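thought: user wants a sequence for this fold. calling inverse folding tool.
action: design(structure=
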């Protein structure tokens, strides 16, 4: 199982923008065939070093994750979203070892 955590820090960190971002990310649920699971969480701490939203996605394989990167993250709608949201991002990808 491959897990990707995408952290977003919005430039305009008001509740309305955070909610719009959360809703847009949640709208992907069920629309991407190789996306095993999707969660979106919102920051409750609101510290200066906090990120506003985290997108947690899970994939069966690294190939499925790479397919998402190639097919989704590079399309204009996603690039436009990042520009409109005017946000900083950090991305972490890791493999979950099940025993």
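)
observation: tool returned 99 residues.
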């Amino acid at each position: 199982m491959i897990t990707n955590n995408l952290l977003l820090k919005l430039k305009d960190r008001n509740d309305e923008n955070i909610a719009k971002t959360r809703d847009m990310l949640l709208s992907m649920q069920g629309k991407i065939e190789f996306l095993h699971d999707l969660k979106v969480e919102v920051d409750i701490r609101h510290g200066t070093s906090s990120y506003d939203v985290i997108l947690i996605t899970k994939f069966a394989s690294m190939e499925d994750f790479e397919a998402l990167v190639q097919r989704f993250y590079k399309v204009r709608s996603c690039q436009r979203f990042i520009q409109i949201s005017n946000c900083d991002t950090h991305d972490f990808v890791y493999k979950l070892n099940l025993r």
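thought: summarizing for user.
answer: Here is the designed sequence. The domain at 2-95 is CATH 3.30.70.100 (Alpha-Beta Plaits).
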